[in-house]
Amino acid sequence: MITGKNHIGWQLYDKGDKLFKTFNPVSNQENKHDFYEASGEEINRAVDLAWDAFSSYQLVSGSSKSEFLNAIADEIESLGDELIETYCSESGLPAGRAMGERGRTIFQLRTFADLVKKGDWVEAHIDTAIPDRSPVPKPDLRKMMIPLGPVVVFGASNFPLAYSTAGGDTAAALAAGCPVIVKSHPMHAGTGELIASAIIKAAQRTGMPEGVFSNLNSSGIEVGVQLVRHPKVKAVGFTGSIRGGRALYDLAANREEPIPVFAEMGSVNPVVFLPKALDQRGTSLAKTYAGSVTLGTGQFCTNPGLLFGIKGSSLDNFISELAKEITAIEPGCMLHPNIIGAYESNKQKALTQEGLSLVAQYDDTIADNEARQAVTTVEGKTFLENPLLHQEVFGPFTMVVQCESKKELEEIIYRLEGQLTGTLIAEGTEANDYDGIVQALKNRVGRIIFNGVPTGVEVCPSMVHGGPYPASTDSRFTAVGINSIKRWVRPFSYQDWPNHLLPDALKNENPLGIVRLVNNQLSSEPF
Ligand code: NAP
User: Fold this and answer.
1) 176-214 burial string, b = 16+ CB within 10 Å, else e?
2) Which of 11, 89, 90, 323 is deepest in the core (most CB within 10 A)?
3) Active-site residue among 301, 321, 333, 408?
4) 515, part of any domain
5) Mutation probe of ligand 1 site: the residue of 154, 165, 183, 398 with most atoms within 8 A of C-beta
6) pTM (2 decimals)?
7) pLDDT tens per residue across span 396-444
8) Which domain holds residue 70?
9) What's the 62 CA to ligand 1 centre distance in angstroms?
10) Per residue in 40-63, pLDDT tens?
């Protein structure tokens, strides 16, 4: 049930005096519920509870955390149609997408449940003592990963489930042993509250400490700013715009005790079309890419916003086919009037840049909050000289950059800002002749795709969802897949610590039966 209140520990709070509503972009009207923005006092209460919960939650066993995460998944499943209807009414996204995203969210939770139950993820390393080593004895050293402390999670507007309240950041932080405070996204506060209530039910049912999870409403930046500044908050997860992520990163760096901010931000996801591929498959590639650019009305962080080719008749043909295909697609609704407003103004800003031409734009009648998808083009030299043309236009927008030569293309890729993905479209062994471009692309992205589209982020251990700044604030980590747990932990060593006082993961008898690196040998045996 949606109450519009803040879930702080086991209680509901509505002391704030600022109220707001969510918006249905399909019906073009506000939804019925009022949401109470968290007051300063309520924010402090949520953080204090998380801090207190940390002392016991960090010691909860892997199998109990696993039960908790599976219980969250079960509780989300039992929210049933109310969740799907609320999601659709707050995002304008269709029910099929809502169900797919719910499935993905549940899968992520269950994957982390399996990971922590197995227990190997703590990366236990044991180097036993050598008392008679000369010239000095070697101490007994044992290392494992331990949780950082309370984590604040900022959800994204475009993934109300999979990258929000119980999304990847929350699941990974809870799996690591960190209490979580979610700064709910104002565009889908009702969806967020339903999920928060599921997490809290699961926490109570599985005996987790009060404060292990709280959900705070907000309709502006103040709640997030207070949370990031709070001395008891030890890390931040963010999915959203470069501007928002950078502001929070700077805020965290300027605290008396700086803390890490793992921000997944915007990306234009360059795609390089090599000449032979365009010669042979230009028309079908145009169709595929029209679909990828407009998928979800272009509201994906992996949307292909920059397409590169070397000038010639094949590229000309590709551009005109892309224009034809993209304008034949029915326009879609965007998430919120603010998002469509930003799309239109960023598109116009791009179009006022010298040298950028509009190739095609959907120009039939559209409903409120629908976006006119657009294809633009620019010369390589102009693109290289104007960084404003490198910025993301969040929505169904793409820019074809026409390069004079392989050399110019390589130079442009080499000088691109960091990206989540890069894609190479090549025919046969054609890629062998473009090693410089491949290497340049590899240096700018977190994931490189061959003959595919960047949209679609598989959840599996080999996925890297991150990349050099500004795609993310720390390219050493991924925000998707089990390895995303590494953002919320730190390595910790015990030196000469008595066996009975060590955590189970490091005890001689290996009661958890996990794989460990013992004196440089992988082993799951006791010793
Ligand atoms: P957003 O405007 O940055 O908002 C994200 C959240 O951060 C909101 O809760 C917002 O709060 C808060 N926020 C923004 N600026 C802030 C500031 N200066 N101080 C404190 N809090 C701040 O992004 P969005 O519209 O939700 O998402 C769209 C963007 O996300 C696109 O650029 C897209 O590419 C990117 N994205 C990236 C990924 C990825 O994995 N890399 C995934 C999805 C989306 P308020 O709304 O309350 O102000």
Assistant:
1) bbbbbbbbbbbbbbbbbbbbbbbbbebbeebebbbbbbb
2) 90
3) 301
4) no
5) 154
6) 0.97
7) 999 999 999 999 999 999 999 999 999 999 999 999 999 999 999 999 9
8) 7-18+30-120+141-265
9) 32
10) 999 999 999 999 999 999 999 999
